Amino acid sequence: MTHFHDAVTCQSCAQRFTSVFCKAKQEFIAEINEQKVCNIYKKGQTIFNEGSYPFGVYCINEGKVKLSHLGDDGKEQIIRLLRGGDVLGYRALLSGERYSASAIVLEDTQVCFIPKELFISVLKNDAGLAFEMMKLLSDELHKAEVKLTHLAQKPIRERLAETLLFIKETYGFEADGETLSVRLSREEIANLVGTATESTIRLLSEFKKDGMVELDGKKIKILKHKELVRTANLQD
Amino acid sequence: MTHFHDAVTCQSCAQRFTSVFCKAKQEFIAEINEQKVCNIYKKGQTIFNEGSYPFGVYCINEGKVKLSHLGDDGKEQIIRLLRGGDVLGYRALLSGERYSASAIVLEDTQVCFIPKELFISVLKNDAGLAFEMMKLLSDELHKAEVKLTHLAQKPIRERLAETLLFIKETYGFEADGETLSVRLSREEIANLVGTATESTIRLLSEFKKDGMVELDGKKIKILKHKELVRTANLQD
DNA sequence: CCCAAAACATGATAAATATCATGTACCTAC
DNA sequence: GTAGGTACATGATATTTATCATGTTTTGGG
């Protein structure tokens, strides 16, 4: 967990136009820049843990993070995938609760911590930021509700196809234009789909047999995007 | 759809201390009171439909409403249950999208419509309301994420028990202290649980055989609350 | 480089759940 | 009140999905 505070400023951050802070006033951005504490997390490290109290929010400068929830029987459910420009930890903070999910780094990630008091006070004094925050929450709520419906109604074959497309939307491809730009274990994919690991492995093999994907360890290439969309059977 | 505009004011509304507007400034409440349009919807009527554009938000004065989402194959998924004091339609409005769910009245309900422009402008000028709104969105997001995890990981027996407890939390009991204060069809309960109607009917019969509930048409009595909690197997 | 542990893969089987089929009860409109 | 439609109930069956078992491959640490 290396610091990189001095290296970056919020005013020059690559994410400044796309993150939820894009509409915030410069004076507040300057204040956030002053108080932020930046760190680098290595793959597998935990940014925060389910059950602990939030002391602020985390803004991802660069990297990939999973937000996951432990089910009653200890099985992981991956709730969200995050990338540069995304903000983490606001849900628990706004609800005034402990974290209901853990944030675990998928690959080396630079994160800036913003203290709770500052975040809340900026939120209360900057209507632009507040409005963007509401939009963000609304969008997340929408995604969660759609996922809920699909989980209840769609077979796992469709859900796995949809999940692969979702990963592509979130992290995109590598330079070759077809390899998903993230390494997830089969178990993690299963925990994203909401199914048993073996089922995911089996279906991925089928997708490979059908020529839709190519598998090379944790590298996944999307060969037939259209057919994958058809398999996902999306309407909405 | 009868008007009842003149009968109620926001300043005297029974929900004024508990709704999301509880922290809003009086001047804005007065403005909302001026512009609101109140209606009574009868059981089965639709307040708004999935796919149409939001023109404002709806504040429930009294009554019961379901928010449901049509899956790709046309199967209903009930996303939320709403009661007096709840606000409807903010999700689509804040995201700037069409409604992703329909609001259908479960029993005669009084609703006040607040025009989009007014709602947005109050939201931008009243930090208290904005903050309450963020809390509301965060809470809904949390509920959705927990439901997601349970849907992915818990068997339907546990989910049905949890759903019955959820209905109880939302609408409470009738005067006898044990009959759920809402009439839902078996199909609606199934669409809340996320399962086939027959499975829900079968399990309700089992719950009855086990003495946990009593069934009399759409009247459902919770006889053994503790055992129902145990059956739901809740940890979080 | 090698070893042990973890991850991956696949077959066999079991369990959970959905679907189909049929009969009954119950509204509700006439 | 009764006919016809809908909701409820329940059994039989089919399908989906999970679990268990076993072998193989990959990976990371010494």
Q: What do you see in this structure?
A:
The structure is a homodimer of 236-residue chains. By secondary structure, chain A is of the alpha+beta class. Chain A contains eight helices and nine strands. Chain A has helices spanning 26-35, 90-95, 116-125, 127-153, 156-171, 186-193, 197-209, 225-232; strands spanning 2-3, 37-41, 46-48, 56-70, 76-83, 87-88, 102-115, 213-216, 219-222. In chain A, strands 1, 2, 3, 4, 5, 6 and 7 form a seven-stranded antiparallel sheet that branches. In chain A, strands 8-9 form a two-stranded antiparallel sheet. In chain A, strand 4 and strand 5 (76-83) form a beta hairpin. Chain A binds a DNA duplex (30 and 30 nucleotides) through helix 7.
What topology does this entry show?
2 copies of one chain form a homodimer.
Chain A: E1 2-3, H1 26-35, E2 37-41, E3 46-48, E4 56-70, E5 76-83, E6 87-88, H2 90-95, E7 102-115, H3 116-125, H4 127-153, H5 156-171, H6 186-193, H7 197-209, E8 213-216, E9 219-222, H8 225-232
Antiparallel strand pairs in A: 1-2, 2-7, 3-7, 4-5, 4-6, 4-7, 8-9
Chain A binds a DNA duplex (30 and 30 nucleotides) through residues 155-156, 185-187, 195-199, 201-202, 205, 217-218.
- Parts with pLDDT < 50 across at least 5 consecutive residues of chain A: none
Compressed to H and E, one letter per element, the order of chain A equals EHEEEEEHEHHHHHEEH
Instruction: Identify the biggest protein-protein contact and residues per side.
Output: A-B, 48 and 48 residues
Q: What global shape of chain A is seen?
A: globular
- Give me the secondary-structure category of chain A: alpha+beta
Oligomer: homodimer
The percent of residues in helical segments of chain A reads 40-55%
Query: What is the residue-averaged pLDDT of chain A?
Result: 95
Helix count of chain A equals: 8
Please give the number of β-strands of chain A.
Answer: 9
Terminal-residue CA separation of chain A: 41 Å
